[in-house]
């Protein structure tokens, strides 16, 4: 490998761990400056639950049914035969006939992109990329042209929002794989970089707060393929039936599941506890086999004030979710109570309970209320990704992105119907409304004395072991002593504490491979691991002060995604490959790229693992990486793309014809001291920085990565 791939670059002014101080403030309310909210000592679980786990562990093996899916309702039936092995399906191009030639696993031949600090999207030779859409571009018909000096909440509510994170591409039925709906999360806003003349958050006017609220949420944008290439552009000049903005400001959401209507979510504005205004801090997500998008409400804590005035019995629960209960105005609060009183917990203590859910958006129902599924639990949800189990139930894997928090899975009560008939889709839309929620507990198979915190492999040569999915709640039945079902679902973190779940190093995106059925979770970092009185390293989180993160691979026992037993390994322990504490599946480390802070994971049709990063602590810009994950090439990880200065790489989304990879460039130029007038990045248009979505394709139409 060329020497430049391993050259370390000077740090870019990152504070503390690996993220810029400005990102820490705006994205997660300086979470790293506070003690991690998980203060539990995780007592072991009672016999009742263990007995239940044992019983369930023997069911379902050998069951038959459809395995999973790519994306999109239509064309799905033709593309997903009932079979026990995972399938590559794929409405875009593949089943619809534009020469879909799935790659063979292990054939990643692109030219490695070197670490760099350039203010551009860097891609391998032979590839092309373009901006699909960026902050301020029109989404809803009638949206005014963006003017940074003349922003209004009404305009922003029709324009593409700020800080794009998750990217999903849902094919439009009957369009030959050439038209699709791009669904994007807008996680948070950075007012320093949005408003000319910004001084402090306190000095923002109410209209500016409302602009920020309108810049949160999601966008649905109809896009079309450019010619026969892998490039995509927004559709213009046609009736845009599905284009939509969903915002924190005014979009109504319906609560579903056991918590809907309960006392914990009733407020003065919604005494029935069923309709919530807005969604907050939507980070990552997933596309379901029935063509909807799931979106995780993550760091919702930073939007609330007045936790000091909340009822005494609510305070420990608020604190477990990172909300201050000692200060009215925590220094990192966005103080949105100045625009909408509901964000004041002293007056409306239940409002916080209405955020932290998995949201399901049906992009084909532009007038409908998106739903918040309470049966899937309330955490700082990174996202959710669904696989159809052998028995037809759907299983969603989820991470709670906080230091020392947990991994979860949800198993539906009902079974997926593999049809795009309207009646079948109507049924599938209810799958996430009822089911069983589990949290992960893992153990290593090596002597704990061998896990010394340095990252040194134990004598058996692998960080690996076994795990159990501990049942927390099923429908209205709680399996956690002292908790009702509504308690478990609303205060899921505390339920995880009570059953002794395993404290992980910030679980971000969790995604099943549709080719192997194995599940991959990004542990992005945890600089508190093993520090002071914090939890010590264990085989699943083996490094002290884990700056660079690792990948956690789960293999469900007997390939049964609805079961309760699994084995696990760490295929990649990130960092500088020249450092002794890194591991790349046993592959020759001189041939891999440095990688730090894995955040999002995805797969191409060959089953290669793609990883995007957030917070490179090695001094380079963030990027997108790819590696085969099976066979001799397992761990041969190389950098495919880098994003501009100050940005993280989000998405990624690879279309199932493998012709296009979408990434979201989130918070370009977010470096302390930057402003509109003094930008640290001018990507993509010059002048000042704008978050935006980029598509990359091979100039000859070859599969991405070849
Ligand atoms: Fe929004 Fe977990 O990153
Ligand atoms: Ca081991
Ligand atoms: Ca993330």
From TrEMBL:
Region (Disordered): 526-545
PROSITE patterns: TAT
Pfam families the UniProt entry points to: PhoX
InterPro entries: PhoX, TAT_signal
Protein name: Phosphatase
Taxonomic source organism: Actinoplanes philippinensis
């Amino acid at each position: 490998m060329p020497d430049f791939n391993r050259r370390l670059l000077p740090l870019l002014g990152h504070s503390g761990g690996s993220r810029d101080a400005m990102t820490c403030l705006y994205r997660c309310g300086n979470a790293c400056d506070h003690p991690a909210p998980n203060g539990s000592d995780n007592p072991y679980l009672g016999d009742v639950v263990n007995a239940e786990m044992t019983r369930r562990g023997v069911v379902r093996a050998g069951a038959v049914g459809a395995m999973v899916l790519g994306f999109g309702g239509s064309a799905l039936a033709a593309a997903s035969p009932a079979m026990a092995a995972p399938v590559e399906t794929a409405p875009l191009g593949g089943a619809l006939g534009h020469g879909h030639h799935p790659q063979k696993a292990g054939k990643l031949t692109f030219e490695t992109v070197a670490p760099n600090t350039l203010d551009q999207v860097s891609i391998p030779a032979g590839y092309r990329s373009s901006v699909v859409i960026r902050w301020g571009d029109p989404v809803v018909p009638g949206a005014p042209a963006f003017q940074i000096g003349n922003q209004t909440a009404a305009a922003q509510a029709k324009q593409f929002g700020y800080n794009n994170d998750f990217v999903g591409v849902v094919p439009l039925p009957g369009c030959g794989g050439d038209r699709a709906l791009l669904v994007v999360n807008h996680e948070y806003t950075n007012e320093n970089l949005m408003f000319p003349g910004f001084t402090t958050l306190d000095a923002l006017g109410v209209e500016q707060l409302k602009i920020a609220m309108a810049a949160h949420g999601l966008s649905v944008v109809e896009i079309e393929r450019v010619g026969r290439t892998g490039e995509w552009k927004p559709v213009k000049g046609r009736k845009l039936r599905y284009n939509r903005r969903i915002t924190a400001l005014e979009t109504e959401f319906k609560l579903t599941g056991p918590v809907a209507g309960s006392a914990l979510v009733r407020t003065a504005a919604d005494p029935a506890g069923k309709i919530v205004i807005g969604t907050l801090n939507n980070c990552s997500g997933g596309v379901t086999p029935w063509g909807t998008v799931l979106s995780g409400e993550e760091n919702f804590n930073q939007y609330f004030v007045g936790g000091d005035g909340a009822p005494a019995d609510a305070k420990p629960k608020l604190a477990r979710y990172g909300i201050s209960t000692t200060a009215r105005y925590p220094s990192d609060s966005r103080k949105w109570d100045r625009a909408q009183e509901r964000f004041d917990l002293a007056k409306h203590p239940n409002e916080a309970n209405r955020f932290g859910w998995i949201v399901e958006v049906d992009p084909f129902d532009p007038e409908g209320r998106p739903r918040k599924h309470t049966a899937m639990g309330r955490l700082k949800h990174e996202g959710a990704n669904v696989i159809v189990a052998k028995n037809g139930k759907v299983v969603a894997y989820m991470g709670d992105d906080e230091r020392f928090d947990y991994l979860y899975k949800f198993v539906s009560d009902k079974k997926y119907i593999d049809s795009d008939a309207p009646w079948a889709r109507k049924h599938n839309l209810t799958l996430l409304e009822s089911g069983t929620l589990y949290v992960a507990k893992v153990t290593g198979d090596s002597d704990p004395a061998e896990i010394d915190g340095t990252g040194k492999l134990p004598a058996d040569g692998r960080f690996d072991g076994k795990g159990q999915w501990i049942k927390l709640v099923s429908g209205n039945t709680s399996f956690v002593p002292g908790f009702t079902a509504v308690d478990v679902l609303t205060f899921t973190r505390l339920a995880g504490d009570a059953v002794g779940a395993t404290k992980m190093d910030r679980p971000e995106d969790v995604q099943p491979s549709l080719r192997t059925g194995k599940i991959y979770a990004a542990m992005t970092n945890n600089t508190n691991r093993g520090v002071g009185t914090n939890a010590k390293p264990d085989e699943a989180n083996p490094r002290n002060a884990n700056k660079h993160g690792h990948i956690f691979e789960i293999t469900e026992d007997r390939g049964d995604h609805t079961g309760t037993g699994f084995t696990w390994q760490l295929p990649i322990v990130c960092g500088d490959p020249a450092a002794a504490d890194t591991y790349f599946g046993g592959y020759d480390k001189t041939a891999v790229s440095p990688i730090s802070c894995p955040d999002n994971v995805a797969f191409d049709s060959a089953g290669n693992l793609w990883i995007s990063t957030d917070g490179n602590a090695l001094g380079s810009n963030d990027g997108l990486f790819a590696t085969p994950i099976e066979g001799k090439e397992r761990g041969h990880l190389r950098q495919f793309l880098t994003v501009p200065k100050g940005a993280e790489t989000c998405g990624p989304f690879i279309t199932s014809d493998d012709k296009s990879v979408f990434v979201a460039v989130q918070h370009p130029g977010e470096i302390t001291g930057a402003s509109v007038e003094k930008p640290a990045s001018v990507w993509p248009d010059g002048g000042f920085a704008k978050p935006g979505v980029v598509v990359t394709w091979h100039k000859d139409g070859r599969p991405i990565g070849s």
